[in-house]
Write a structure and sequence with these properties.
The structure holds two protein chains of two kinds.
Chain A (H helix, E strand, L loop, with lengths): L3 E7 L3 E2 L8 H4 L11 H15 L3 H8 L4 E8 L7 E3 L4 E4 L2 E9 L2 E6 L4 E3 L11 E3 L9 H4 L9 E9 L17 E9 L3 E7 L6 E4 L6 E8 L5 H7 L3 E6 L5 E2 L3 E3 L3 E4 L2 E4 L4 E3 L4 E3 L16 E3 L5 E8 L25 E3 L8 H9 L1
Antiparallel strand pairs in A: 1-12, 1-14, 2-11, 3-12, 4-9, 5-6, 6-7, 7-8, 10-11, 13-14, 15-23, 15-24, 16-17, 18-19, 20-23, 21-22
Chain B lengths: L8 E7 L2 H5 L4 H22 L4 E3 L12 E5 L4 H26 L9 H10 L2 E6 L6 H12 L6 E2 L41 H20 L1 H7 L3 H15 L8 H8 L3 H11 L3 H13 L2 H4 L17 E8 L2 H9 L3 H24 L1 H4 L6 E6 L2 E6 L8 H9 L1 H6 L13 E8 L5 H17 L4 E7 L5 E7 H5 L2 H4 L14 H12 L12 H11 L14 E2 L5 E3 L10 E2 L2 E2 L1 H23 L3
Parallel strand pairs in B: 9-10
Antiparallel strand pairs in B: 1-3, 1-4, 2-3, 6-8, 6-9, 7-8, 10-11, 12-13, 14-15
The chains are: A mainly beta, B alpha+beta.
């Protein structure tokens, strides 16, 4: 169970890139932008820290075995316990306001109309993506009326194209190969100085400065114990029942294929476990560097993740995320549950109650 | 049409479309992906019987086939899905087979399984059959509902990823042979010649594509067939137009490139029979993507760097609020909806076809080209091969874009039901292709976001920073830039934009437009009047807001766009208005300077 908040305050510019980190071609341009770093990156930070004090790799492995993380989230530096998580996709956001919430009712997604006092088909419009909500507002998302009060936030970072000298492949020297010019464009990320990145962890980590986010960039790291009265600790313990939303990307499937929900591999194919109805988006690539003795870490298997914010309505009630079976998660060395994949919070409001009750709930 | 009220409609679509197009490094990728999307949509239309297709109209136009298909009548999901995936497998098999037959080297092909996975899982397929009496709008709505769950299955990968997208496995002959994670780097280990097996594969693949191109082009084949040395040199050169040996692509990316090669399309025709849309594809490829004529615009030309490189202009646009119009049609009764949808689709497709087919007639320069035009979507590039195309020429061209091209193509047809938004990006030669495309998309979005029926001008410098200014078409047409008068009273060609530009820079540095939250408009307005005439009422309140008709078509575009966007709790937010007006003037000075200065 998560007991600590890992608070990371970046100093200066961070780099955001994805895919083939080492190829200069891939560092060029903004298309490969990937920020904030995944929980797997933070796990590398734990490994690096413990490797300093642990002599043999076997002990190190034992130390890190129980490690479990989740993220990325972000918060205002003054209130790390009220961090922001991706807005569940049943909220239709426009101009940073939740216009309405969809709920599943009798085989379709509907939205509640306050004026007409009835459920209707969602408006056919374009809505904003990639917004965040404070965890303290999670309970408000449950009801169509209170959801509208929730303030939606934009991410506190922006991508900043940044000119760099081309370095030689094997030396830290400017490559003056005139043919392509000695400058290249890198995708820097600038964070609001009052904001920090947040990850959940079940192990503490010593406070201090760490290298994080590639290219030896330094960050300030704090570790805060999760108190029993933090809203997140209550939410994490609650059973998910039949409707919930992901606050981190989820990875499911076999070594060969990634799916939109966990399942079991049978001789005649993949059998979904939840038979879920989903609200989701395009798959996003999910990859990180694994351990390994060499200087350059090995690449993990490239997989596709169900994006954070995805809402599930399952056939049967589900337990809290911490109680999910390890078997549901693919394994790559450790189970992918270690990176907090598919961390879900209950979202009872995503199922519309019978109309009379709904009105009662809204009236009360 | 009899008893339309009981007509059943089927809606079919597939995904990803945007995601499929956006991973592009070369122009060829764009062409390739748009051809593929058209082919797949076409295959569905043919399969369901074209007479029953309500939208897209004119299915026998192969260009820019929209990928949402509305059919009158019931189409079974199993049949439609099978036909769609049969076409796709046929394309993947043709590409794989061509490579295996033609690209030989010190390797054994063991990539069948991966090709098989991509044949099965590259697309999400969506299909909805309406109930009797349900309107097209309702069926469309249900299709959108279905898409909310998505339907993807991801193909995982090991080893290095494609250099183009950064995801998906690099496709090469022995893909899938190595299972152990620790051995995944083996194909990238360099041999004595300094090349890895994967690199050898791509060198050979590129060269064979070039060789096949020469063999398929009689006039080239004749010149080189007796001279193996020259043949090889030329094969390498032409091959690079398809795949640069430095690139390492995934299977779907490889397919996009190969579909633009006539030898491969010929094999596809052999496999599928001579369907008219395949024959049409072959013709288009010979016309649009002949590497002999295609070498003039390769933005990754780092190998021949002694050639001077020039700024290029890119424009991307589409119609505004087509969905508002279709929704409005839906409210007019089912017969009118059915007929109106087809009429609208016909009008847009005729327009797209004419714009594309006779692009040279419409573009400002005979070397410029239209990459894509289908329905209301278009993308093109303005440039000159051996000289700098003046930015001013582009500006002049856009000044008549709405009247001359958007409304002006097929003038016999009734007025368009929708307006157009365009993003124009004027870009330094050092900016990579895919960033150019991203800027194009963002500029188009700006034009829409700022109120539709307008163009967003973006100047992108090699450092990646940019300037942007958004302007309604009518203001360009009214000759805003001609009205500019510099401090010496010069107008037109001789006007010096530095004056306006410098004034804005100085005033900005002194916070003369006010600072955050405390902006005022007097300075900007006065400055505007100095350079554009005292009588110019462009920034007057009457010109601020859009006016729209009953289906939200903008009939008179305002400088600031949609009034709704400037309201807070029902009342106009004066701070936001002031800020936007100030920015409009400031950005006009900056962008105008870059577009109009002759230096």
């Amino acid at each position: 169970m998560f007991q600590h908040l890992i608070v990371i305050e970046p100093l200066g510019l961070l780099y955001g890139s994805s895919g083939r980190f080492l190829s200069p071609e891939n560092l060029v341009g903004r298309s490969g932008a990937s920020f904030p770093p995944s929980a797997a990156t933070v796990s590398g930070l734990f490994a690096a820290y413990h490797a300093q004090t642990t002599k043999d790799s076997k002990t190190l492995k034992e130390t890190l075995k129980p490690l479990q993380l989740a993220g990325p989230f972000w918060a205002d530096s003054n209130t790390p316990e009220n961090f922001h998580v991706p807005t569940p996709l049943h909220c239709l956001v426009k101009d940073q306001r939740i216009r309405c919430c969809m709920a599943w009712q009798q085989g379709q997604w509907l939205t509640w109309s306050d004026e007409k006092r009835q459920w209707e088909t969602p408006p056919n419009d374009k809505f904003e993506k990639g917004t965040w909500v404070a965890i303290a507002d999670w309970h408000k998302l449950q009801h169509p009326t209170t959801a509208k009060e929730v303030e939606v936030q934009l991410a506190p970072w922006k991508f900043l194209p940044h000119l760099h000298p081309h370095l030689m492949e094997d030396e830290r020297r400017v490559d003056s190969d005139k043919e392509r010019g000695s400058l290249f464009l890198e995708n820097g990320v600038q964070m609001n100085p009052d904001a920090c990145l947040i990850y959940l962890s079940n192990m503490p980590l010593k406070e201090g400065w760490y290298r994080f986010g590639g290219e030896g960039h330094m960050v300030n790291l704090r570790c805060i114990e999760i108190q029993a009265d933090y809203i997140i600790s209550q939410l994490l313990q609650a059973p998910l029942k039949q409707s919930f939303a992901l606050i981190t990307p989820a990875i499911w499937g076999s070594n060969r294929l990634s799916y939109r929900e966990p399942g079991i591999q049978r001789s005649n194919g993949w059998e979904p476990l939840w038979n879920a109805v989903l609200l989701t988006e395009r798959a996003m690539p999910f990859r990180y560097r694994l351990g390994g003795k060499e200087r350059t870490k090995l690449l993990s298997r490239g997989r596709y993740a169900v994006p954070a914010g995805t809402v599930y309505i399952t056939e049967h009630p589900q337990p809290a995320w911490v109680d999910w079976s390890e078997d549901w998660f693919p394994k790559e060395g450790p189970s992918l549950k270690r990176w907090g994949c598919g961390l879900a919070l209950p979202l009872p409001g995503a199922i519309a109650e019978p109309t009379a009750e709904t009105q009662g709930a809204i009236a009360s | 049409m009899t008893d339309t009220d009981n007509t059943v409609y089927t809606a079919i679509t597939f995904a990803p479309v945007q995601g499929f197009i956006e991973k592009s490094r070369k122009l060829r990728d764009l062409y390739g992906s748009s051809y593929l999307l058209s082919l797949l949509a076409q295959s569905i239309c043919v399969a369901v019987g074209e007479a029953n297709v309500v939208s897209p109209a004119l299915p026998n136009i192969t260009q820019g086939m929209p990928n949402q298909i509305i059919v009158r009548g019931q189409v079974s999901q199993v049949d439609a899905e099978k036909l769609f995936f049969d076409t796709w497998s046929c394309i993947t098999d043709t590409c794989r087979q061509w490579i295996e037959d033609n690209v030989q080297g010190n390797w054994q092909y063991s990539w069948d399984r991966d090709w098989g996975l991509w044949a099965k899982y590259a697309w999400e397929f969506f299909h909805v059959v309406g109930k009797p009496g349900e309107s097209i709008t309702q069926v469309r709505q249900r299709l959108n509902e279905k898409k909310r769950s998505r339907a993807w299955i991801g193909v995982n990968w090991q080893g290095e990823s494609s250099t183009l997208s950064g995801t998906d496995a690099v496709a090469w002959a022995e893909l899938g042979k190595i299972a152990k994670p620790h051995e995944q780097t083996v194909p990238w280990e360099k041999d004595r010649s300094g090349k890895s097996p994967v690199e050898h594969f791509y060198v050979e693949l590129s060269c064979q594509l070039g060789a096949a191109f020469i063999k398929k082009t009689p006039e080239l084949a004749q010149i080189y067939h007796n001279n193996p040395q020259r043949f090889l040199e030329k094969s390498i050169e032409y091959g690079e137009a398809f795949i640069d040996p430095d690139e390492e692509l995934s299977i779907p990316e490889l397919i996009k490139r190969l579909i633009t090669h006539k030898a491969i399309v010929e094999q596809l025709i052999e496999r599928m029979g001579s369907l008219y849309y395949l024959t049409e594809l072959k013709k288009q490829i010979e016309k649009d993507l002949n590497p002999k004529r295609f070498t003039d615009l390769n933005r990754l030309q780092h190998k021949s760097s002694n050639k001077p490189q020039y700024w290029t202009g890119w424009f991307q646009g589409d119609g505004d609020g087509a969905s508002d119009y279709l929704k409005w049609l839906g409210e007019q009764g089912s017969q009118q909806e059915d007929r109106g949808t087809t009429a609208f689709s016909t009008q847009m497709r005729c327009w797209g076809q004419e714009f594309k087919e006779n692009a040279t007639r419409y573009l400002p320069n005979d070397q410029s080209r239209l990459i894509y035009a289908g329905g209301d979507d278009f993308l093109g590039v303005l440039y000159q091969t051996d000289a700098q195309l003046p930015a001013k020429d582009c500006l002049d061209w856009f000044s008549t874009f709405k009247s001359g091209i958007w409304e002006g193509i097929n003038p016999t047809q009734p007025e368009k039901q929708i307006t157009a938004s365009v993003g124009f990006v004027w870009v330094s030669p050092k900016v990579p292709q895919r960033d150019v495309l991203q800027h194009c998309r963002e500029a188009e979005k700006s034009a829409k976001h700022n109120g539709k029926d307008r163009i967003a001008f973006r100047i992108v410098f090699s450092g990646g920073n940019y300037l942007e200014w958004v302007c309604p078409w009518r203001i360009l047409e009214d000759g805003l830039f001609r009205q500019y008068r510099d401090r010496n009273g010069m107008q037109g060609e001789k006007a010096n934009w530095t004056h306006f530009y410098n004034d804005v820079a100085v005033l900005e540095s002194r916070h003369s437009f006010g600072s955050q939250g405390e902006e005022h408009f007097e300075t900007a307005e006065a400055l505007f009047k100095i350079y554009f005439g005292d009588a110019n009422s462009l920034l007057h309140k009457n010109n601020w807001w859009n006016q729209t008709n009953d289906h939200n078509r903008v009939i008179h575009a305002g400088v600031l766009g949609d009034e709704k966007n400037f309201k807070k709790n029902g009342a106009l937010d004066p701070k936001r208005v002031t800020k936007s007006l100030n920015n409009w003037v400031i950005n006009l000075a900056k962008v105008g300077f870059h577009l109009c200065s002759n230096t």
